[in-house]
Amino acid sequence: MTGIDHTHDAALRSWVPGADGHPDFPIQNLPLGVFSPGDGVMRPGAAIGDRILDLKALLATGLLAGDAAAAAEAAGETALNSLLALGAGPRRALRARLSELLRAGSADRDRVAPFLHEAASCTLHLPARIGDYTDFYVGIHHAENIGKQFRPDNPLLPNYKHVPIGYHGRASSIRPSGIPVRRPRGQSKAPDAAAPRFGPSARLDLELELGVWIGPGNDLGTPIPIGAAQDHVAGYCLLNDWSARDIQAWEYQPLGPFLAKNFASTISPWIVTPEALAPFRIPQAARPAGDPAPLPYLLDESDQASGAFDLRLEVLLVTPGLREAGLAPHRVSVSNARHMYWTMAQLVAHHTSGGCNLQPGDLLGTGTLSGPDRDACGSLVEATLGGREPLRLASGEERRFLEDGDEVILRARGVREGFATVGLGECRAEILGAVA
Amino acid sequence: MTGIDHTHDAALRSWVPGADGHPDFPIQNLPLGVFSPGDGVMRPGAAIGDRILDLKALLATGLLAGDAAAAAEAAGETALNSLLALGAGPRRALRARLSELLRAGSADRDRVAPFLHEAASCTLHLPARIGDYTDFYVGIHHAENIGKQFRPDNPLLPNYKHVPIGYHGRASSIRPSGIPVRRPRGQSKAPDAAAPRFGPSARLDLELELGVWIGPGNDLGTPIPIGAAQDHVAGYCLLNDWSARDIQAWEYQPLGPFLAKNFASTISPWIVTPEALAPFRIPQAARPAGDPAPLPYLLDESDQASGAFDLRLEVLLVTPGLREAGLAPHRVSVSNARHMYWTMAQLVAHHTSGGCNLQPGDLLGTGTLSGPDRDACGSLVEATLGGREPLRLASGEERRFLEDGDEVILRARGVREGFATVGLGECRAEILGAVA
Questions:
Q1: Cβ A165–B350 below 8 Å, yes or no?
Q2: Which residue, A10, A286, B20, B357, has most beta carbons within 10 Å?
Q3: Which residues bind Mg(2+) (chains A, B) (predicted)?
């Protein structure tokens, strides 16, 4: 490897058909995941265009050496945790070597080509075993929008601008894109009802989030300082933190959301590396002048200068009516990752500041990333003002909350002049009716 | 096996020295765990008196057959998850066979004795890999006591008697008894301070809880009905849910406790089976007449009749002053598991009611099990009325909250006329000073 990273160069072309100009996975991305081709056997892979490169088969050819080979060796057949644990060095070496092998003019094209699979005929799995999952609340517009509905007199609590608010979520119910989500049943209580009822959630919602994959992590009792926090981020994904608002409103006091969130979460199945997203870093942008300065354990000059991301985020909705009429998905919102009040590094530093240990393959969610406007809401409860103003679709349908048969698609893309567009892939799932 | 379970008979005697009359582990208990003897190699075992029986070595002798052998085979070298996954049949068969082999008069005594290790020279480990950890809040006296301090006007929220309140905790920081706990640093804000500060917690507390080990569990989207919930409980332990009250007060709104709890939790390392605790089952006792009836998904006649436990619970405190003066530990409180407002089966049924999947080796905490009186408080924040009325120790020391060098010991025992006393073992840990 040279000291200069050429893997982002917009001029790079790949010999893989369809990779150049691919909206998510051009040669400048090269995300990592776990897939099964037609034979059903799980294995680690890298996405390029509409293909997936089998990393174990590639390793067996001898085309990888040194750190790049070490990374591919560490990639497990069914989970990438051991690769994530290696940290940035081997991950970058693998990326650099894949970039060489897959670029137009590579002398090794004929040796690599046999190990490419059509993504459309493969199954994508969770890329790692998720030990613990933590969800934050860093979208300040979301916090304000939700706060207004739950606490009209007190939308943003006094701790919000000091503490990166987060809570523990459920790891066992996280599924990769494409797995349907069953509508939960649960307790809810209408404001004027004498007692709660138990039944299917009537206010099923989506949440547009980014996920953060943890790399090496820390020992219990040994916090990660803010200046080292980036070393422990192995990559990013999209996260739909499905939420049953009626269950949430009734159960969440005093210990936070529980059954309202733990019935399912959906993630995009590719780990998009910090290297691939480097061109889209921007200064920490969502903290207005005049807001309190972060406490020293959350403050790092380099993080303030480049710790945020400019990623265009989209929520799309496909309903049975749109599907039957052959109409395009309804665009619910367009937002941006720049609306994070805290950076990814601040989340890692805060999470470990009391000694809590993060482990390779742990997942952090950012919280819902809404923008300031009505057409930038990352959830339906915001977009419809708690269900009072339904979305009107081209099919003539209305939506206050999700109905059975609806499908939600999340997208995230870095778009910057002079750089290839890079995306996180798709995070989609359809809603199934509740169990009888 | 016969249809009648004789493994509780008070008349049973064991040939293992010190087992008869052991306060936790007589032959009527036989809990399961993972240990390392002097050679450091981890292996599954069963506790009997002050000894541990090596289950893999026993299996190799051929003294186990059928379901009992299947259970010992499933017990992993480093974790019992696969044994827990088998459910009650093999677990009971193993218990019945161990009871035969270890009882006085067993013809196999000489073949079994070589596989007993002195517990005092062994290291005890977590008995299973904990996938997800959930903490409930079923101690109604605790909820009232804490509620008064956080919300004087509104101690018990309107949902408490309808919803088994719970939240997700941190699995990665759970440690077995004996591992010291480092005092966390974190943000806190005095009521009259203009801004928060970051530093060592000044209000470090313990919480007296029971833990529930999950057995087979359920598929995502397939709730466990209340009538089947007991089939998914593999056993019990003690749980100290260490809590930093100053961090908690500042961070917990609106999403619940996070860093205030995730720096460490300590459990007793033995899985005490439902079979061993069967003599201590009592009718659901903590729900006063006139309280709302549980919704149907939480209501089961047999569970109401015998779903609660009569277990004596104790919190002991050892301070540097007591230690130096050679004084006995200070008994902070004596409580009882009967103060659970919801049964273990109700926790399992509620947790899965929206479709959330439980997996073998998941851990549930009950929440703090305080009794109605000041000497039955399961936490210091209750026992000292938020630090206003310190404990006075025989050493002349006072304690409002835990200080560095303090050690907390939790105990739980079933004591019933006509039955051998059975305990969960010890859950203890010492507090270390915060990192500099």
A1: no
A2: B357
A3: 241, 261, 265
